[in-house]
Write a structure and sequence with these properties.
The complex is a heterodimer. Chain A has no helices and nine strands. By secondary structure, chain A is an all-beta fold. In chain A, strands 1-9-8-3-4 form a five-stranded mixed beta sheet, with no helix packed on it. In chain B, the strands form two sheets. In chain B, strands 2, 4, 5, 6, 9, 10 and 11 form a seven-stranded mixed beta sheet that branches. Chain B has a four-stranded antiparallel beta sheet with strand order 1-3-8-7, with no helix packed on it. Chain B has no helices and eleven strands. Chain B is mostly beta strands. The chains are: A mainly beta, B mainly beta.
């Protein structure tokens, strides 16, 4: 699976959009970009995933660059409950075991 | 659906003791996983299973054993507990066909070995 690089931490204001970057310059053509988050002391939670096209769901939007070497997770209106560690993971879907490899993630603090 | 449940929530072991961490899922997922998370770090895969009767090692399997006799249950066994196994343990499960292949995580078991 391709390695990802994320900022260690970032702050954002409540009610504003939070833009979380992720670099994955060695991504392969059959690898997807997944985002999970982990709120303090809880198990990780799936947010969104994509291959080439931008994706949106009720939680967030995922913007993937045309060359697929980087992506941005957007939380459109951050709330205090979005304070968490966000993990960007790149992997081949339907690979043996469907495994995830977690890096250090980005620690996001949403401030009032 | 209860999702993925884990017991116990907390446990303190003495060095050399053994214990089994329980994990059950009610979503009929074929794939199940065990991760550990040390303080301030990301999760590391210990073992995983692609179906009943089939298990395989992950990144950090030493000191652990697993079994998968049913689709629902995936217990993790610690033999001869060591302080290095102090961690939070998460169990997860996922679909194998269609959908997003997302993994669903349990609430975790916080283990201290002293």
């Amino acid at each position: 699976d391709a390695k990802t690089t994320q900022p260690t931490s970032m702050d954002c204001a409540e009610g504003r959009a939070a833009n979380l970057p992720c670099n994955h310059s060695t991504i392969s053509g059959n690898e997807y970009v997944y985002w999970y988050r982990q709120i303090h002391s809880q198990g990780p939670q799936y947010i969104i995933h994509g291959l080439k096209n931008n994706e949106t769901n009720e939680m967030a939007s995922l913007i993937i660059t045309e060359d697929r070497k980087s992506s941005t997770l957007i939380l459109p209106h951050a709330t205090l409950r979005d304070t968490a560690v966000y993990y960007c993971i790149v992997r081949v879907v339907v690979a043996a075991g469907n495994k995830l490899t977690f890096g250090g993630g980005t620690r996001v603090l949403v401030k009032p | 659906n209860a999702g993925v449940t884990q017991t116990p929530k907390f446990r303190i072991l003495k060095i050399g003791q053994s214990m089994t961490l329980q994990c059950t899922q009610d979503m009929n997922h074929n794939y199940m996983y065990w991760y550990r998370q040390d303080p301030g770090m990301g999760l590391k895969l210990i073992y995983y299973s692609v179906g009943a009767g089939i298990t395989d090692k992950g990144e950090v399997p030493n000191g652990y054993n697993v079994s998968r006799s049913t689709t629902e249950d995936f217990p993790l066994r610690l033999e001869l507990a060591a302080p290095s196994q102090t961690s939070v343990y998460f169990c997860a499960s996922s679909y194998t066909t269609g959908g997003s292949y997302e993994q669903y995580f349990g609430p975790g078991t916080r283990l201290t070995v002293t």
